């Protein structure tokens, strides 16, 4: 995609996303629905969109203070428990979920494994964090617990992994049928293109790839990611609209336009997630999860596409039967 076309696409997508999101806000406010109060989430209204059976939240965290903190962790949120998360599921209507090991606990996946056991493998999978010291026995134990990938969090300071660990670890987890998940920014995506091309497993980019705004789909990382997507190797998580948005709530129109561009590039290679409990956001500035879910409907307005992104794609990526 050349730059002029990308810029035009982005402008059109921003205008469309803004109008659609404003329509959604009006529709939601007109609905007289019983609300659900969810810790670490603004608002109580139910979303306008109705989640299909087996709809999957592909990115959330669980925090409990009884699990050991990584001494280098910079993000140390308050408890966000399984009981709290089940309230979010009730509010949104999702039933499957992917628990992502947060940077808070480093490479100690004890809490992740415990949470996977509480939810059960019928509905839940996990993404672990390991470094190059991990043993084969430990990887097999994580696989049995429901882990289906490992995460490299390079954006958050104090992370337990680094980009130079990717080639060796990607080769090891490929043998298990796992993928690697990357919390990196757009410039890092471009600089490490050869690494993503070479690894023998799928590559999943967190939070829209953290492409900077207002560039969005005009940033060169968009081509790198979408080339991987079209080859069936790259995936994008349609999560964290607030992370890089310059426009912000309630429309997040710039990030929403980028998400729409990924869906247009290859709807087979995207998944959706809540990013609850939104650890990068201040306790008094959490987003409205129902609103975020309703914005998703504007990228996928028909039921068939919604099912593909919320059910079918996660079933392939995370190995749900």
Describe this structure in words.
The chain has 321 residues and is α/β, with parallel strands linked by helices. The chain has a single domain, classed as Metal-dependent hydrolases (TIM Barrel, Alpha-Beta Barrel). Helices cover 42% and strands 12% of the residues. The chain contains twelve helices and eight strands. Strands 1-2-3-4-5-6-7-8 form an eight-stranded parallel sheet. Helix 1 (3-30) packs across helix 11 (289-299) and helix 10 (253-265) packs across helix 11 (289-299). It is globular, with a radius of gyration of 18 Å. The two termini are 36 Å apart. Residues 1-32 have low confidence and may be disordered.
For this structure, what is the CATH homologous superfamily? Answer: Metal-dependent hydrolases
User: Per the principal axes of the C-alpha atoms, what is the gross shape?
Assistant: globular
Main β-sheet description: 8 strands, parallel
- Summed over residues and divided by their number, the pLDDT gives a mean of 91
Count of domains = 1
Low-confidence parts: 1-32
At the third CATH level, what is the topology name? Answer: TIM Barrel
CATH architecture: Alpha-Beta Barrel
H/I helix tally: 12
- Strand order across the biggest sheet? 1-2-3-4-5-6-7-8
Structural class: alpha/beta
Q: Strand-residue fraction? A: 5-15%
Helix content: 40-55%
Between the first and last Cα atoms, what is the distance in angstroms? 36 Å
Please provide the ordered H/E string of secondary-structure elements: HEHEHEHEHEHHEHEHHEHH
Q: How big is the Rg?
A: 18 Å
Counted beta strands: 8
